[in-house]
Amino acid sequence: YEGAAKPQEEIKVEAETYAMTGGMSVEVLDNFEGSAGKSLKTSEEGSVEWDIEIRSEGLYNLGIRYFPIEGKSASIERELWIDDELPFAGASTLTLPRVWANEKDGIEQDNRGNDLRPRQVEKPMWQETVFKDMEGYYVEPYQFYFTKGKHKIKLVSTREPMVVDYLRLYQEEDTLSYDEIQK
Q: What is the 3-state secondary structure (H, E, C) of the chain?
């Protein structure tokens, strides 16, 4: 899709407007963890699907606002299917990180004066991220091609539960070069 249009339109898909689930029981939550409105609690197995309407054909970045809930303390993993097809291999291994912090504010020392590495504990919080290659092979966020009309977006859970606020189709802003930042 090289040279395809990149519409400046933003499409927000509220999670609670899902069309169907497969092998997953979901729960609609109200005002979860300080987020006003409804969100969707998803489990670590199965899938959830949304219907969307695309008004402008082209390439879109796809982002998600989510909250990592208690699981096995691993990164959250999902597959992204569009119209019952995996758009490319990288869409089968989307990783959504958790937030970790030091258990204690200060650095402790042993009896010889050596600094001890603080224990890490999870500090769950709402996060918004764009789907991208977490392995680092592709620097730019993934782009997904949509034709004009109705489409289905499906997230298949492969690891860990999470709460989803919304999905967002949009154009990610270009990263500024060091020269541009310096100016």
A: CCCCCCCCCCEEEEHHHCCEEECCCCEEEECHHHCCCEEEEECCCEEEEEEEEECCCEEEEEEEEEEECCCCCCCEEEEEEECCECCCHHHHCEEECCCEEECCCCCCECCCCCECCCCEEECCCCEEEECCCCCCCCCCCCCEEECCEEEEEEEEEEECCEEEEEEEEECCCCCCCHHHHHC
Q: What is the pLDDT of residues 61-116, one digit of tens each?
A: 999 999 999 888 889 999 999 999 999 999 999 999 999 999 888 888 899 999 99
According to the model, what pLDDT value does residue 124 have? Answer: 93
Other CB atoms closer than 10 Å to residue 64's CB: what's the count?
23
CA dist list (Å): 34 to 11, 74, 81, 98? 23, 23, 30, 18
Reply yes or no on whether the pLDDT at 175 is more than 80: no
Q: Distance of CA 11 to CAs 17, 75, 105, 144, Å?
A: 13, 26, 41, 13
Percent of the chain with pLDDT over 70: 100
Residue 174 has pLDDT above 80, yes or no: no
Dist CA 115 CA 73 (whole Å): 26
